[in-house]
Amino acid sequence: MATLEIRDLHVSVETENGTKEILKGVDLTVKQGETHAIMGPNGSGKSTLAYSVAGHPKYTVTSGTVTLDGEDVLAMTVDERARAGMFLAMQYPVEVPGVSVSNFLRTSATAIRGEAPKLRTWVKEVRTAMETLQMDPAFAERNVNEGFSGGEKKRHEILQMELLKPKIAILDETDSGLDVDALRQVSEGVNRVRETGEVGTLLITHYTRILRYITPDFVHVFANGRIAESGGPELADKLETEGYEAYTTKGGASA
Amino acid sequence: MAEAQNIPAGSTTAGSIAVAAESTVATRMSAPPSFDVADFPVPHGREEEWRFTPLDRLRGLHDGTAVATGEGVRVEVTAPDGVTVETVGRDDARIGRAGTPADRVAAQAYTSFEKASVVSVPKEAVLTEPIRIAVHGIGGVAYGHQVIELGAYAEAVVVIDHTGDAVLAANVDYLLGDGAKLTVVSVQDWDDKAVHVAQHNALVGRDATFKSIVVTFGGDLVRLHPRVTYAGPGGDAELFGLYFTDKGQHQEHRLLVDHNAPNCKSNVAYKGALQGQDAHAVWIGDVLIQAAAEGTDSYELNRNLVLTDGARVDSVPNLEIETGEIAGAGHASATGRFDDSQLFYLQSRGIPADEARRLVVRGFFAELVQQIGLPDVEERLLAKIDAELEASV
Q1: Chain A residues within an 8 Å CB radius of B269
Q2: How far, in Å, CA of B248 to CA of B233, rounded?
Q3: In this structure, what CATH number is given to the domain that contains residue A214?
């Protein structure tokens, strides 16, 4: 069973005013089949955690470890991490001019699976996944994320998650900017992947809204660059009524 | 109807639409077209038509100091039966009919060439095999002139390959009879040091179809000037171009479509990728719709993809309309870059960096390559694009 282990992770970025530490000792273990929600106020470092684990060059890991089944993730290139089974659904997916969705998906699946998927089964696989996400088939011929609406971008991210079948999926504010219908469809997509029991999910969100559709096993409150409190789904209910105030005021974590 | 977009990335893009009493296309040249080099002053580099070109790398083609060296290039023509291939003197009536030299180097080539090669396809002949013209540089200076002539309703494909090393200035004339169909593929696959400056003149007959595919990969400096005029109504011109500009290369494509007859069409689409320090691509797209050219349908497009820092693109579409009675006219120019965020996105989906770059570049060119309509040329281009990417850092 795949396990992602983050130990005492410290991450900094270069800013105009010099180096700034954003993650200040994150400890987290995510096992295949589990769903963890990371919730926290804006600027707490949630997205930095997602991008650092995926290997974005903007972030410098100054200390700590990230391992996937004991393998050193931090030593891997971005594409090696993906091939090892990591997936990041981005908050702001990037436009790639000149590359169609269908070409992109096939190239990506070929890289992740280590061989080109057989054309006939692949076409069917993509079509089925797109239908369940209620995506127009014409979507496949558009350039990656070019001119996509917010909802289309997020659906496209979840489509990739369904096709690439990662061991560990990090969903960075996948719920942001979605209307209720889109949120439901995207959540259903995530749940289909979760139901396989093959993926460990790290759901990063600001709002509790998405947790009505995706029930987490664990909820972590992220504040000031580290996990301030961990608990079960009931912790989300508490945040729903009380907000993040207790974590953002001086003193940080509450009991 | 016109569109001009600009996403600068070490680039400049400017566009203009003029509906003016005075032709800016004509007046911004420093001298009117002429067959005589003496009618053009030696350029100093600030003229509109020379301002993007590094004159010091023209090896004297612009100032009369480049002297032809016996055999500078070797030209071999392979043509199917029924096609006439001749080498003719300067007095042949077909020479210069398709157009007049528009700048100093074209006039220099016209003034200096000794023999021209003329390839003629008789009327109504429909060729099933392409005519192949191999222009191979053997290190010298050469001035050339070629004429490709199609009789009425003839159909032909011509593939011109430029290889080797040379300093070459040339004029190439395409004469299309009424209803003729000519497709020309001109590949500039020169060695690194070559300098190639050429004007292409197409005179498109009544209801004739001219398709030009210009592919520029090699050379130190390549400056091409494809020009189209119409000999009657109903003509159709499609001008496609691809370039891949590497470190230190200067590749310049200057197009003019002169809509001088009614109910003609033109479609210009040039796409380029650039990589490496001081890679410089220039695209000038002039379309002139004269008062007589009612019913014109015209579009021009230039797209550039900048793959690395240090490259520069100058893209200037220019549309000038002297009649409102047209079917359509528009232009678009955009320069974008393949950046780190795109690379991160593709890599985060398991795609290695070099493959990500290849995916983007192949995708960028694919739409244009598919319009060529000649499978062997398309294959060759894609292979060449891959090779260019392999050679990159």
Answers
A1: none
A2: 43
A3: 3.40.50.300
Instruction: With beta carbons less than 8 A apart as the criterion, state whether A49 and A12 touch.
Output: no
What are the residue boundaries of the structural domains of chain B, listed by start? 11-350
Does A112 fall in a domain? no
What is the tens place of the pLDDT at every residue in A103-148?
Answer: 999 999 999 999 999 999 999 999 999 999 999 999 999 999 999 9
* pLDDT digits 0-9 by tens, A206-254: 888 999 999 999 999 999 999 999 999 999 999 888 888 888 765 444 4
Which residues of A fall within a CB distance of 8 Å from B345?
90, 93-94, 96, 144
Interfacial A residues in 159-198 facing B (CB < 8 Å):
160, 164
What is the structure's pLDDT at B376? Answer: 84
Q: Is A77 on the interface with B (CB under 8 A)?
A: yes
Q: CB distance A98–B350 less than 8 Å?
A: no
Q: Does B370 touch chain A (CB under 8 A)?
A: no
- What pLDDT is recorded for position B25? 62
The average pLDDT across B359-388 equals: 86
Domains in chain A, number: 1
Residue from the list B336, B344, B353 with its beta carbon closest to the beta carbon of A97: B336
- Distance in angstroms (rounded) separating the CA atoms of residues A239 and B194: 70
pLDDT digits (tens, 9 = 90+) for A167-209: 999 999 999 889 999 999 999 999 999 999 999 999 999 888 9
Report the largest interatomic distance among the alpha carbons of chain B, rounded to a whole angstrom.
Answer: 65
Least trusted range by pLDDT, from A26-30, B250-254, B338-342: B338-342
CA–centroid distance for B340 within its chain: 32
Range of the domain at A231: 3-93+166-248
How distant is the alpha carbon of residue A251 from its chain centre? 29
Could you give the dihedral angle defined by the CA atoms of residues B213, B215, B220 and B223, in that order, rounded to the nearest 10 degrees? 20
Spell out which residues of chain A touch residue B359, defining contact as CB-CB under 8 Å. 99, 103-104, 107
Residue A80 inside a domain? The answer is: yes
Residue among A82, A98, A144 minimizing CB distance to B348: A82
